[in-house]
Amino acid sequence: MEQQGPVSNRTDPVLPCPGCGGLVPDVPGPVHPYMRASPGCWQVYGDVVARWYAEPLAGPARWHHVDAYAVQHAGGAEHDRRQRRSVAVHLITLCSLLELRQRPEVAAARRGRTSDVVLPRVGLSDWPYLEPPSRQGPVTVADLDGVRTTAEEDTVAAAWLESAWTAWAEHHAVVRTWATILQEVRS
């Protein structure tokens, strides 16, 4: 029998998140310090991740939810060095997973070394600004709020990773180059 996941009991009005566009609760609260997300989206993400830590997913989203969330909330990167780094590192990690077919745990483990490995090899002192896509993809963290079964959750989570990566297609060539450089350096 399929295990039942928590079903969203949210009754708050919803609005589109200014980062990912997902319909999330219209609630007050904290937001990430440099990602462009509404309080409701940040809350949904926290709830989803807490649920996954209680009963981890078996698939790649277990390791890569942070990558999908970060690239779907990239507003302000033209003015914020932390955000430019975040976008580049998380796109490289998604590329490593989805295109270069690295094992999820390997791609995630390399995330912390990405800047130190890639930037010197491409002759940069900092990550360049990558213009975010006008649409962040059809699947967002909001789609994981209230899924009913673990199988559905695995399916939606995998689609979320693909959606987040695909939305950045305009930058795939440069990100692929960076990810290949990272992959060539053995951990």
Tell me what you see in this structure.
The chain has helices spanning 39-54, 61-71, 81-98, 104-110, 114-121, 150-167, 172-184; strands spanning 14-16, 23-25. It has 187 residues and is mainly alpha-helical. The chain has a domain at 55-184. The chain has a two-stranded antiparallel ribbon with strand order 1-2. It contains seven helices and two strands; from the N terminus they run E-E-H-H-H-H-H-H-H. The longest helix is centred in the middle third of the chain and has 18 residues, at 81-98.
Unreliable stretches? 1-8
Structural class: mainly alpha
Number of strands: 2
Main beta sheet, described? 2 strands, antiparallel
**Mass-distribution shape:** globular
Strand arrangement in the largest pleated sheet = 1-2
How many helices? The count is: 7
Average pLDDT taken over every residue: 89
How many whole angstroms does the radius of gyration measure?
A: 16 Å
- Quaternary organisation of the protein chains: single chain
Q: Ends: how far apart?
A: 40 Å
SSE ordering: EEHHHHHHH
Helical fraction equals 40-55%
The amount of beta strand, in percent, is under 5%
